[in-house]
């Protein structure tokens, strides 16, 4: 999920959202507010989606590549002020406002190597924010708000200042981040995720901006790794300058239960993900039984990490981190091999969802990242 944040004076870790910061969880709105508030300029539900065509190519020397993705256009999201409580619960509280972005795009490139690696390149594009409605309460039945766009600040269609949406975000030091969690399911073993220094990240907050996270089976077989140092920077596109400015991304692991215990905060994600294991029912029934509960339960994730973009200002962000899964080929690689062979790629054109199923040493490995 997208999460805006503001580092407070008592922040625990600069450049990443933590429990001492001001946090705004972001949810796709999905309804037409102009019908409910006809006398306000709230955005209509007119966002569109585009499935990026699924392509496959043979690169030679046994290397196979697949590409897919999805782009949302003119996306309106509800921002909700959120608190991370000391006892480990996350509290979703009051609505903060509405933000409309030019686009929200997730593109994936999976490269399968005969040496036994499946490398997933992820390209995240968060388009420019062109409208922001900041909610201030109610006057009887009328909402009190400020509407910021690229020309100034408005209230009920009347301009009240020249402060633009970009001025507002800069003045309030609003940054952007993406919250992700990963679960690897093996048929016969448990898994755990460690930093390069061997620290378990299930409950600890650790800076991994220039290092990696690796997931192992309980007998220490390497399953997959996420190398954040491979793509440590992101590009920020200012509207007044066609050339992007490059900044370092900030990546921290976070306490899983601090986020996952809030059923309201991740209700959309967990409600959807309980259907993901159905992909396996007809192919690998045993894997389905193993995955059906674990995938939808964030509390048993291998790791939860937040990729943060401290320099933001409402402008376009482009970032492409890398995930690598490891397997042992049992035959020459054949594209999908009629759903047989050492690797089965399950493609779902939905945002921030990558599912790779590997048949490795007679065990099924399912890597879910969302």
Describe the structure.
- This protein is mainly β and 370 residues long.
- The chain has one domain.
- 9% of the residues lie in helices and 49% in strands.
- The chain is built from five helices and 23 strands.
- The chain has a 23-stranded antiparallel sheet that branches.
- The chain is globular and about 65 Å long.
- The C terminus is likely disordered.
Topology, number of strands? 23
- Share of residues in strands: over 45%
Major pleated sheet: 23 strands, antiparallel
Give the overall silhouette.
globular
Whole-number count of domains? 1
Q: What distinguishing features does this structure have?
A:
370 residues, 23 strands, disordered C terminus
Compile the SSE list and pairings:
Layout: E1 2-6, E2 22-28, H1 33-36, E3 48-60, E4 63-84, E5 90-113, E6 117-126, E7 129-139, E8 142-149, E9 153-155, E10 158-161, H2 165-171, E11 175-186, E12 191-195, E13 212-217, E14 222-227, E15 233-237, E16 245-248, E17 250-253, H3 256-260, H4 267-273, H5 285-294, E18 303-309, E19 316-319, E20 322-326, E21 343-346, E22 354-360, E23 363-369
Antiparallel strand pairs: 1-2, 1-11, 2-4, 3-4, 4-5, 5-6, 5-7, 6-19, 6-20, 7-8, 8-9, 9-10, 11-18, 11-23, 12-13, 13-14, 14-20, 15-16, 15-19, 17-18, 21-22, 22-23
Brief characterization of the structure:
This protein is mainly beta.
């Amino acid at each position: 999920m997208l999460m805006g944040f503001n580092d407070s004076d008592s922040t625990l870790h600069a450049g990443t959202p933590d429990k001492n910061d001001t946090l705004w969880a972001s949810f796709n709105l999905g309804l037409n507010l102009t019908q409910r508030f006809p006398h306000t300029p709230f955005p209509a539900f007119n966002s569109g989606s585009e499935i990026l065509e699924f392509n496959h190519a043979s690169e030679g020397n046994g290397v196979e590549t697949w590409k897919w993705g999805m782009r949302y256009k003119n996306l309106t999201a509800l921002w909700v002020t959120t608190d991370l409580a000391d006892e480990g619960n996350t509290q979703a509280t009051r609505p903060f406002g509405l933000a409309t972005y030019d686009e929200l795009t997730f593109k994936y490139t999976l490269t399968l190597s005969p040496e036994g690696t499946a490398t997933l390149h992820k390209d995240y594009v968060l388009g420019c924010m062109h409208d922001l409605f900041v909610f201030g309460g109610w006057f009887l039945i009328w909402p009190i708000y400020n509407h910021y766009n690229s020309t100034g600040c408005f209230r009920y269609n009347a301009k009240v200042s020249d402060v633009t949406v970009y001025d507002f975000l800069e003045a309030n030091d609003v940054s952007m981040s993406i919250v992700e969690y990963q679960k690897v399911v093996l048929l016969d073993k448990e898994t755990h995720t460690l930093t390069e220094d061997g620290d378990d990240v299930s409950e600890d907050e650790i800076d991994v901006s220039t290092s990696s996270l690796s997931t192992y089976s309980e007998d220490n077989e390497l399953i997959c790794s996420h190398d954040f140092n491979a793509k440590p920077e992101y590009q920020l596109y200012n509207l007044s300058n066609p050339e992007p400015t490059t900044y370092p991304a900030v990546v921290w692991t976070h306490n899983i239960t601090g986020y996952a215990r809030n059923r309201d905060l991740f209700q959309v994600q967990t409600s959807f993900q309980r259907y993901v294991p159905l992909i396996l029912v007809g192919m690998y029934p045993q894997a389905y039984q193993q995955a059906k509960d674990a995938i939808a339960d964030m509390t048993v994730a291998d790791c939860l990490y937040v990729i943060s973009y401290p320099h933001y200002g409402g402008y376009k962000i482009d970032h492409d981190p890398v995930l690598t899964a490891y397997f042992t080929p049992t035959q020459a690689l054949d594209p999908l091999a009629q759903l047989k062979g050492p690797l089965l790629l399950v493609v779902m054109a939905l945002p921030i969802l990558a599912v790779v199923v590997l048949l490795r040493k007679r065990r099924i490995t399912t890597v879910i990242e969302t």
